[in-house]
């Protein structure tokens, strides 16, 4: 039997995700059967940029095929913060959306924690941060951790990804995760260009960003109030509610620059 090697990263499942030979074992949840069906379905449609599911084991862990490559963790290395890396994730996300467009999973149940309240025709990942992307030679090749996947609009998922990976954040927050000074409006335009967003989709991305930032902190605060240790530590280390209030003030002041960049 292969030994289990802890794979570091993440918050909710920190320390509970392991590699065993060619497989990854991680905690399953009520939506894991749907996620496995979804991953198989998009693979059948030609999208290979996600791990292949194997099973849900008797011990309650899901088993997936290990995807070799580099997964950046904060503080992020310079190659993971590059424009080339950002563009490659946007292209990969487009592939996911195209493969899932109009897909129907019989008996599906999805997490509503990060879901697009307006729903939509594609399946959104909803948590595309750098820790959930596998890179090879600086290029994104696979997305990981589909726990929060759910039907939604393309713009909703693009905005969620951009918020974390452009990043759409004030300097205090960004520096804590290893981000350096960058022209963020230009990088948001790079995301939309690489995804090949239409003018209508670009406006929708901005709208989704405004909603996301306005609601910022709700997900983490729910986990904190539920007593989850990892989220309590993150909340405290990142400055609590002030972190999200500061980002809202920053977005109100900087919004016009992002609007101009996408026009």
Tell me about this structure.
The protein has 263 residues and is α+β, with helices and mostly antiparallel strands. The chain folds into two domains: 5-65; 78-262, Aminoglycoside phosphotransferase (APH), C-terminal lobe (Aminoglycoside 3'-phosphotransferase, Chain: A, domain 2, Alpha-Beta Complex). Helix content is 44%, strand content 13%. It has nine helices and nine strands. It has helices at residues 32-44, 83-100, 154-165, 171-176, 184-195, 199-214, 218-225, 229-237, 241-262; strands spanning 5-6, 18-20, 23-27, 53-56, 61-65, 122-124, 133-136, 139-143, 150-152. A five-stranded antiparallel β-sheet has the order 1-2-3-5-4, covered by helices on one side. A hairpin with a 2-residue loop joins strand 7 (133-136) and strand 8. Helix 2 packs antiparallel against helix 3 and helix 7 crosses helix 8. It starts with a strand and ends with a helix. The mean pLDDT is 93.
Offer a concise description of the structure.
The protein is of the alpha+beta class. It is 44% helix and 13% strand. The chain has two domains: 5-65; 78-262, Aminoglycoside phosphotransferase (APH), C-terminal lobe (Aminoglycoside 3'-phosphotransferase, Chain: A, domain 2).
Distance between the termini: 56 Å
The ordered H/E elements are EEEHEEHEEEEHHHHHHH
What's the average pLDDT? 93
| Main sheet specs | 5 strands, antiparallel
How are the strands of the largest sheet arranged?
1-2-3-5-4
Number of strands: 9
Give the count of structural domains: 2
Classify the helix fraction into a percent range: 40-55%
CATH second-level architecture of the largest domain: Alpha-Beta Complex
Q: What is the CATH domain class of the largest domain?
A: Alpha Beta
Radius of gyration: 18 Å
The tally of helices reads 9
Briefly note the structural class of the backbone. Answer: alpha+beta
Task: Tell me the CATH superfamily of the largest domain.
Answer: Aminoglycoside phosphotransferase (APH), C-terminal lobe
Strand % is 5-15%
